[in-house]
């Protein structure tokens, strides 16, 4: 068998190439897309539809692929299946018969690109929390690297002019054929060298962020008190017992005295402190003999079903830990059985409590299975908490700003500096290079600075850069403003990468690990919506520069306020000592480490003499 390290390297290479090709596709298709649509009779509105259809299809398919990945727990064949959609879409794009065929081709390609949510889920499951920001930054940098390199392919693709049967391949159609070939080659690689790596998030404290690791550990210590005897400890009223069995309280006292002797004997032979506390809780129940009813028994059994598994396991360990204590253990078990028989009564419906107790283990297994596989709607509630809503708003804001600024950039440089295709291409290549460098730098920085601090710094820089552009730039021709333009847009580009990467990483940490595919689908879907609306706003307000930039500043300022208000929650909930959250969920368990003398069932009624 291939070593795990080798499988991981091959898998990461395949996924990195997938992100790289996603950037290349964007860079080689967009420059000629408008002329392609225009040549087939399409107008600007239809071009906008074609441009938005890619994001719309990715929005829907991303959520579906994410749910699929969560259900099966594997991503290899999901990615391969999605690549088939991308290949089909790019092949249709190269046909060039009708503008509607181009629209369908972009829908298919967008549906294939939606598998990114499943890929991010795979990266989440196979990376530690402290390394996730660095890993996300590297893969996102590969996409930006593809956008930076992509325009270079157009230098030789624009020279193509040949036929494949009746289909003409020229500068407009060759980008689709080129991407179909590249995706097909990647498909072959993924079939043989892409693997479903083992998950490293199988520790209980990593399952859900609704509680801290310290709280999880405390609950485990609390649950170590055996619950296997609570059923016997819970008693019914004297009148019910007399009617059903005719057993007097004197019989109970004699049985309890015998149980006490066996308890002391077992303790002398090395019985653990946990079991001894269970014996003490049994004595406490004696005081409640006259008041506890059958409903109380059902309450204690159902309220603490979540603690049965840990407690029962520890109780069994206590009885089997000392092979030489067989006599004491047998005497204890015999006494418990006799007392259990003596307190058997009716629950009011004619059903014996003994029969109820026989179904105890079945219900315990059902509850355990339900806790391990909760309903999807229960998991969905994890996505609508305060911190996740803030992060989704942050994602929308940063993508909206980026899309709006990119849309305004070309008309602005044309009006202010008189730039053409050559100058704009050089600027975009330099911007992509700056983005790649910034993304690569986020990895080392994230080891020393928390994600929320990186996000805060990025938002402050975004506000500063937009304010700079609002003050020093206008949409009037003035080449002397070039230095102000480069500084302002340079800071804006520098602010995008930290916020984008840290938001994605932190979002994966504050959401349930079992629905990472769905969560990343929601996150990418919000980004897709922003990438659709952003260009519409940028294109509509390009002539009113002050209004356009002013709205962007207001959006960033609003999200900045949200981040500051929720700053205490925007942290990894699985790291001990870093979570301030307290949802006040009550618990029936006691802290046995803090107070070992506290009984499991506290006295609520006056005690009665035996």
How would you describe what is shown here?
It is globular, with a radius of gyration of 33 Å. A two-stranded antiparallel ribbon has the order 1-2. The model is unreliable at 202-358, 363-371 and 579-610 (pLDDT under 50). It is built from 24 helices and two strands. The chain starts with a helix and ends in a 45-residue tail after the last helix. Helices cover 71% and strands 1% of the residues. The protein has helices spanning 4-39, 44-72, 76-93, 99-113, 116-125, 129-157, 174-193, 213-223, 230-233, 238-244, 249-268, 273-286, 294-303, 308-320, 326-342, 353-358, 360-372, 376-380, 386-416, 421-446, 451-472, 482-510, 516-540, 545-565, and strands at residues 162-164, 167-169. By secondary structure, the protein is mainly alpha-helical. Strand 1 and strand 2 (167-169) form a beta hairpin.
């Amino acid at each position: 068998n291939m070593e795990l390290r080798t499988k991981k390297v091959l898998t990461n290479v395949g996924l990195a190439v997938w992100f790289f090709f996603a950037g290349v596709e964007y860079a080689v298709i967009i420059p000629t897309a408008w002329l392609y649509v225009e040549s087939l009779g399409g107008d600007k509105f239809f071009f906008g539809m074609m441009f938005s259809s890619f994001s719309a299809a990715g929005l829907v398919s991303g959520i579906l692929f994410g749910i699929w990945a969560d259900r099966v727990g594997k991503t290899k064949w999901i990615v391969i299946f999605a690549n088939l959609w991308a290949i089909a879409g790019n092949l249709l794009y190269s046909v060039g018969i009708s503008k509607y065929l181009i629209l369908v081709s972009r829908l298919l390609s967008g549906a294939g690109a939606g598998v990114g949510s499943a890929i991010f889920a795979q990266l989440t499951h196979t990376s530690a929390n402290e390394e996730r920001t660095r890993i996300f930054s590297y893969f996102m940098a590969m996409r930006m690297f593809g956008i930076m390199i992509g325009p270079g392919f157009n230098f030789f693709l624009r020279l193509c002019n040949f036929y494949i049967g009746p289909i003409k391949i020229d500068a407009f159609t060759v980008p689709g054929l080129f991407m179909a070939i590249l995706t097909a080659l990647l498909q072959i690689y993924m079939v043989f060298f892409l693997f479903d790596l083992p998950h490293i998030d199988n520790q209980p404290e990593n399952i859900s962020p609704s509680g801290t690791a310290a709280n999880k550990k405390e609950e485990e210590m609390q649950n170590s008190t055996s619950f296997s005897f609570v059923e016997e400890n819970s008693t019914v009223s004297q009148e019910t017992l007399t009617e059903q069995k005719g057993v007097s309280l004197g019989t109970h006292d004699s049985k309890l005295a015998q149980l006490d002797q066996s308890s002391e004997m077992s303790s002398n032979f090395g019985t653990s402190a946990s079991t001894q506390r269970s014996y003490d809780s049994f004595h406490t129940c004696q005081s409640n003999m006259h008041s506890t009813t059958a409903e109380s028994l059902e309450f204690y059994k159902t309220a603490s079903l979540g603690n049965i598994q840990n407690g029962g396991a520890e109780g069994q360990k206590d009885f089997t830990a000392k092979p030489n204590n067989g006599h004491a253990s047998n005497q204890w078990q015999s006494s418990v059985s006799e007392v259990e028989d003596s307190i058997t009564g009716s629950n009011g419906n004619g059903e014996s409590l003994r029969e109820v107790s026989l179904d105890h283990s079945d219900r315990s297994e059902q509850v355990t299975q339900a806790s391990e596989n909760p309903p999807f709607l229960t998991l969905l509630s994890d996505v609508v908490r305060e911190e996740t809503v803030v992060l989704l708003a942050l994602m929308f804001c940063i993508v909206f700003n980026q899309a709006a600024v990119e849309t305004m950039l070309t008309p602005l440089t044309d009006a202010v500096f008189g730039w053409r295709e050559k100058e704009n291409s050089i600027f975009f290549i330099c911007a992509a290079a700056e983005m790649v460098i910034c993304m690569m730098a986020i990895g080392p920085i994230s080891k020393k600075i928390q994600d929320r601090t990186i996000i805060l710094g990025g938002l402050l820089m975004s506000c500063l850069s937009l304010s700079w552009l609002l003050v020093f730039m206008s949409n009037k021709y003035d080449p002397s403003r070039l230095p102000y333009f480069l500084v302002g847009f340079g800071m804006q580009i520098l602010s995008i990468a930290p916020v984008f990467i840290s938001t994605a990483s932190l979002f994966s940490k504050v959401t349930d690990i079992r629905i990472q595919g769905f969560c990343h689908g929601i996150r990418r879907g919000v980004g897709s919506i922003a990438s659709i609306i952003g260009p519409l706003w940028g294109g509509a307000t390009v002539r009113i520069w002050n209004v356009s930039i002013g709205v962007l500043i207001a959006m960033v300022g609003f999200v900045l306020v949200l981040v500051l208000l929720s700053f205490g929650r925007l942290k990894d909930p699985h790291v001990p000592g870093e979570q301030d959250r307290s949802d006040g969920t009550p618990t029936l368990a006691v802290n046995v480490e803090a107070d070992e003398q506290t009984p499991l069932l506290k006295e609520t009624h006056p005690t009665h003499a035996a």
